[in-house]
## 1
Amino acid sequence: SAYAPLEGIHTGTLWLFAEIRSDNTSYQQNTADRSGTPREELDEFRENDQNTNLQTFFSASYLGISRCNLLLTKLQTASFEQASINQIEGEARFLRALYYFNLVRIIGDVPLILKEVTSPEEAFATAVRVPEAQVYQAIIDDLKGATIKLPAKYTATDLGRATLGAAKTMLGKVYMTQKNFSGAADI
C-alpha cells in the first residue's frame, strides 16, 4: 500500500511540475473550457494553495509517507523472519525518501513527519513546515538506511520493488540536487 500513491503522483501530477514549467512544453488552455485553469497556473508559475494539481500531489505524497511511517512503526514489534523485516524496512525508507524528495523539490519547506500519527492533535502538532535542509537530511538518512536493508535484486514475483541500486541511485541524485558532487561520487 505504500507504493500505491506513486501511480497517481507519477501519472497524474508530477509531470506537470516537471514538464509544464520547463521549456519542453507549454499548456494552452481552451478558452471555452475553464477546467484547465490549474494547469495553466502551473505553466505560468502562478499557482496557489487552491490549485487542485498541487493539492492532489501534496495529499498523495503524505498518504504514501503515512503508510511508510505506519509500516516502520509496526515493524518494531513484528515477529517474522528478519530478512523480510529488513526488506520491508528498506522499501519503506526508500519510498518515504522518494515522497519527500519530490515534495521538497516542488514545494520547498514542508512538514517532516517521520513517525506514525495516531491522533488529530498529533497531526496538527506535526503539520509545521521545516527548512529544506532538515528535509534533505531526513531523505539522506532514510536512503542510507535503505541501502543497508535492501537486496541487490528480486526474483520475478517481486520485480519492481525498491532495490539497493535504486536507493544508491536516488541518494546520488539527492546529493547532485544539493550540489554535493563529492558525496554523489562516493556512493
## 2
Amino acid sequence: ARWLTQWIVLFALWMALSGVLVAEFMIIGGISAVGAIVVSERLFHGSHEGKYASAPNSVKWYAITVLRFMVYIPWLSYQIIVSNFYVAYLVLHPKLPVEPTLVEFKTTLVSERAQVTLAQSITLTPGTVTVDASDGNFLIHCLSRTTRQGIEDGILQKRVAQVFGEPWVDHVEVTDIESPNQVPR
C-alpha cells in the first residue's frame, strides 16, 4: 500500500509537471516513479531500524493522515502569519525587546515523519529555528520569551501528534542552554 501510494503521488506529480498526455511520456513517468521508489528504498532501508515507530501499512491510515494533514496546513499557515507580525513588532520596536535563548527538549513523538514535521514546522514559524533534531531530542533557538513560551506550551507538538495519531503532552519540559559546553554533541 505504501509503495502504491508513493507511485500514485509521484506519477501524478510527473503528469502535472509535464502536462503532456502522450503514451510515451506516461510510460516514462510510470517507469521514473518506480525508479525513484526503488532508489529511495535502497538508500534508506534499514538506516533507522528500531529508532522510530513505523507507519501502519494500511490505506485507511494513509487516507486519515492525509486528511488530518490538510487540516494542519491552514492552522500552521495561520501560526506563521501571526508569528511574522510578532517578529516584525520585535524588530521595529524602539527598545528591540529581543531575548534570544537556546533551549532543548525531548519530544513524545515516536515516528521519524512526525519528528521531521515538528522540526520543519518550528523552523517555518518565524522567531524559532530548529538547530538540531536527533532521536527525539530537539535544540531550538528562540528569538524571545514569547517564542520560547510557544515551545513550552507544546501546541505545535500536539497538533503534529494529532496528524500522525501519536501521543502528546500538554506541557513540554524545556531546558535552557546557557553555555557552549551544554550543547549536545
